[in-house]
Records
---
Amino acid sequence: MANFFATFPPMWRSVPALAALALMSTALHGCGDRDPDRTAVIDLLPEQIGGWTRSASATYYDRETIFDYINGAGEVYRSYAFNQVVVAVYAGSQGPDITVELFDMGGPADAYGVFSHAREREEAGIGGGYEQRGRVLCFWQDRYYVCVASEERTADSDRALLDVARAISQRLPPASDPPDLVAMLPGDGLVASSQRFFHLHQSLNYHYYLARENILELSSETDAVLARYAPGSTYLLLVRYASDSDAAGALTSFKRGYLPDAGESRTVETENGMFVSYGSRDRFVVVVLDAVSETAANDLLQATLNGLRQPPN
Amino acid sequence: MAKDNAALTRRDFMKGVGGAFLGMAVGMPEPACGRVTQPATSRVVLIRNEHVVSGLNDYDGDLIQAMLDEALVALFGLESPSDCWAQMIRPDDVVGIKSNVWRYLPTPPELEQAIVRGVLGAGVSEENVAISDRGVLQSEVFRRSTALINTRPMRTHAWSGVGSLLKNYITFDRPPDYHDDACASLAKLWELPITRGKTRLNVLVMLTPQFHNIGPHHFDPSYTWPYGGLIVSRDPVAADAVGLRIIQQKRRLVFGEDRPLQPTAHHIALADTEYGLGNAAMDKIELVRLGWTDDSLI
């Protein structure tokens, strides 16, 4: 945090510097061992990983203070059941510092969700899956989403990130499967690593801008997965609502807002020459977007409806 | 065209309702019909230098000063940079320079100091000048400011599409209040008592822009490139629109496909169509190009 102001002439920086101190004070407040929740979380991070030593202090951010740490992008975490994140730095005698962020996402589904939010590739071997890009490695495991970042990318930093991530993974509860909704997606044509699991309207618009209004009536009570399919760049949206009536209401709202010209048809050609199809079963709503043909839209819709199942009681 | 903007859908953008460039902002092809607001044009100066960037956050301060000087002369059509500053700033002004301190890609201190020199050269006393980002509401200078200068680097952003000049004013209020719909209402920040009508100059830093993210908030230098540019305008919307086009074109080149920003940066288009703050459509922007022309991407 102090680095934010390190490079600026002091005469122009007095006010921000004071603000930064206040911010650091807020972030550090209550981070001692007396807070049982925080003690439990920090204990998940080993004090020593090979030649890397965890710093004595760590910083914590919750749903309210997350913006102090990552500005507006905090909304990504808040769109899930994010509880808190602990940030700790590992220093080693060889190589740059490594920063570890351990996000408590409230449950495995949302840990997967935030992992899926922007991952471009996924590899197995750490937790429920991981992605390493540049100087950052992120993985999800149980209710935790973990990011390990090297201050610089060096010849050894990729290896160091893997070592640190694996050591932390060993401290966490066992890895879970992705949410059951993700497993209901048809396999044929599915683009690898394209599944995005989320709950809210703004998350849908992040991945696929559908409408300014929440015409699918998404909420924290809904689970949704969006995935890309070949051929073309077809999107499949599968939403599970809290009840059958909620799903029926959402489908009516979607038809009224997005397909007012559908009439009784389940498939509509849109202005870009692509096809939208939609359907529902019980608590589920399925929408196929930007399919290359009417047949492709209907086939993907039907395959999805056929694969739906209720969670076990 | 009569459709309420609050109810706009992706299909409306396909039809051209809501503005051609708004549709483009959400990744749609440009439709045939345009929009009818903001009749005035906006001048935007894009100046580049192939030697100004030595590395990420490693810049030649003398060249930045020269670039800013040349850009101002072109923007205002005056004889000298000092004439431009004298037109923007009065000696009795109280000037807040709204900067950006994001750790990985801050506003270059060399640029901040070039702006300070210009302001002081216009006759403003030192105690009436401040640079700040997150401390603007606590700054005595910003609270009594009569003029603002807005500067920041452009970068992709996980909640607003891009970190823009428009977004740079978010610390003038409570940031979460502007997060809805991918920060669609950022232009409202320019109507706050502390900002309204005060902005004299916008400098969008395109020295090493960031064109892609890792995850929701991580940074990697491999997603920046040495573009070596500054975009200078009195219209923040127009400057952002030019910067956004460059970012989008860079993404096309790198990814080999038209990959829209996630989320879309529609706050820039909406600043034009809904808030009338400036011009986002390229046919309303008079783009003046100076300096290095290779790979300008626009």
---
Amino acid sequence: MVLHKIKRLLTKLGAGCVNKIWRLGAGGRLFWLTLLSSGESFRRFRLTIREVYFTGVLSLIIILVSAFFVGMVLALQGYHTLQKYGSSEAIGVLVALALVRELGPVVTALLFAGRAGTAITAEIGLMKATEQLSAMEMMAVSPIARVIAPRFWAGVIAMPVLATLFSMVGILGGYLVAVPLIGVDEGAFWSQMQANVDWEYDILNGVLKSVVFGVACTMIALFEGYDAPPTAEGVSRATTRTVVTSSLAVLGLDFILTSFMIAM
Amino acid sequence: MERTTIDLWVGIFVALGLAALLGLAMKVGNLTTSSIGETYIVTANFENIGGLKPRAPVKSAGVVVGRVGEINFDPKTYEAVVSLSIDKRYNFPKDTFANIYTAGLLGEQYIGLEAGGDETNLKNGDKISQTQDAVVLEKLISQFLYSKATEGDDKASKTASTSTETGGDALDASPLDKIGK
Amino acid sequence: MANAIVEIQDLSFGYKGRLLHKGINMTFPKGKVVAIMGGSGSGKTTLLRLIGGQLKPTKGRVNVCGEVVHEQDREGIYRLRRKMGMLFQHGALFTDLSVYENVAFPMREHTNLPESMIRDLVLMKLNAVGLRGAHALMPTELSGGMARRVALARAIALDPSIIMYDEPFAGLDPISMAVICDLIRSLNDALGATSIIVTHDVEETFQFADYVYFVADGVVAAEGTPDELRQSELPFVHQFVHGEKDGPVPFHYAAPEYHASLLRGAR
């Protein structure tokens, strides 16, 4: 009896793994097809601009407000620790490096997955459920070129912009807490920051990270929508999976990218 | 092609992003302060570089004139070979002295250049022959203690114990172990 | 038949070894309205997808304009599809585009017409389905019947030579149904196109169809003009046309003996 149960559990586990690998392959194929059909979405850039509005501009509020609070909390926590070592002027460096290198790209990507990723998945899933994608196919229009590719590029464009804004607004929030509120010297705040934040190694690497996250998050959201069973339940499950998978992918990729960037 | 409000918003969005990047570059990053354009590379050998890291600043009279490039180990002389990329605008004489300094007591280490009096200047690929190693705090203290100890053998143990009391805040007991060796 | 625009020859199709169609032969002559009828789940919609090249047959083939659909590459299939218009079951309008943009969509995708000409064409198509006044509405603001008519306008946007209808009457009130019936016939004749209608509404279809195929158990069970079929003595056709509850198509899904099932449950 117990053996039977274990056997069943193992079978289930194996089937789950095979299913995951199958989905990874299918996602990779969709990614490849999207890249192949990207020419059209560049030729008619208007389609992409429209999607930048939906994924980027409409995510601005949540990104900026979060950034502001994250920056303020960083400054408070940082000051609390740094003042023990008498180096509270370094708070600018701490806030800026934390935001530019890690929190900017990562938190933006997580928020993006929740705000824009789910919207993309639900939209594509519903388009599939209501046969809109089929209708497009029958009109001899490739849904990948017309629907998937513009959304993909919009995500890839929007993510670094959002992440950069996140870092900037976060630093502003940190500044407001550190300088007027706590009373750290303004000159020291900025000059220490400028002396220790490197344009190429910190800022550009942060932007690069956010581009990679943009590719991952948008592609996952698109794939989950495209792959969703055309039912209400299917779409809602796909939306949940988008958030879970994107978050894990972002954190995993962050580790890989960071280790590469530090090694270089 | 007709213009829509969406285009306007996306335009504002991208412009904001670029402005933020520019802001990061100018206000947060050191793009303006360390705009080292063209550089030339010289090398310097040190017996001990302490905690010097690649990309540490190279300063002369307190002004950043370049950055540390690669740091390698020479297996023949058992020395560290540090390459320095120095801004082309600044020329230094051949007999320039390279020191490894520490910014503050616990700060990061950097290389300080002190110009000599030679007629010819350093060129790309040259080697700075006069160097001074990093000051290693443990060594310094053990030297100090050693010299104290040789002053009077009978006082040695007493000095050691007092210095433990005075310098104990910043240092742990490990440097003192060296006295016995 | 020489003037057949679509021909289905010995077509078999199935998922994972279970065959849905077992050797179907159909001919769709130019200029005619042909209906494919059958019970729910008899694979009628799948036939349309096979004609449109969205699915590949397991065996046999579909000829459209003399070309074998499943042997075409992507380009070839797209070229054939440009001759087709398809009305989906629930319209499948693009919910993020207005009625006007929905009808303009195929023109924008496949032609380089100037905006003014697109405008004229869109209004013409909308006028043909009686919805010119609704061009600024969004699909969510339309009733089911109106959405179906807009989708029809979109399907005929590029003046196709084959128009396919997937359950055009499903879920419509009698008035909308009559309107759609009328439109199918009049558009077919006005455009000189061939219409293929997949449906199970006997009365409406028999009013305007030229020829009807009955599909059951994966084969063509009966075929003929509506009048011939009304007179048909075939038990299946009789049951279907007259809407009888029991007959060759059983009321019960295949199940073990009733008594046996109940007794096993009690044990």
